[in-house]
Task: structure prediction
Amino acid sequence: MTGFVQTARIFRYSAAVALEDFRTMYTLRSWVFEWLTRIVSQVIFFSLMGKLVESQERVEFLLVGNAVMLASMTVMFVVQTTSWERMTGTLPLLIAAPATPLVVFMGRSVEWIPDALATAVAGLVIVAPMFGVSVPLSKLAAILP
Result:
């Protein structure tokens, strides 16, 4: 087996385990009604601060900035995931994989990227109309990459 094929297989298996871990943590119902509700509440809270100072510019800044910050915050769960591996005793098994640890940890953390994207876009799309902030579809599509 070539090195690339072996590395791709290890990444695929690592990603499959990560997605199963994610499904264990969240069901669609818990993600929407618990996690997404928390995210939307946070974006609303900071947008209300802009309303408090009676500045639509501040509302837009706080709304968009908070949605973007939530994406980066969600991706930072990668660090926690690695710590969880250590706490559960599986870290030595991951390091012993016949590929570099970078490939294994990238696969084990791949689920956080689509979660962060969905979290940020949903927070922005749900809260923006509440505060009169227009988000053109062309700008929203630019967020995805």
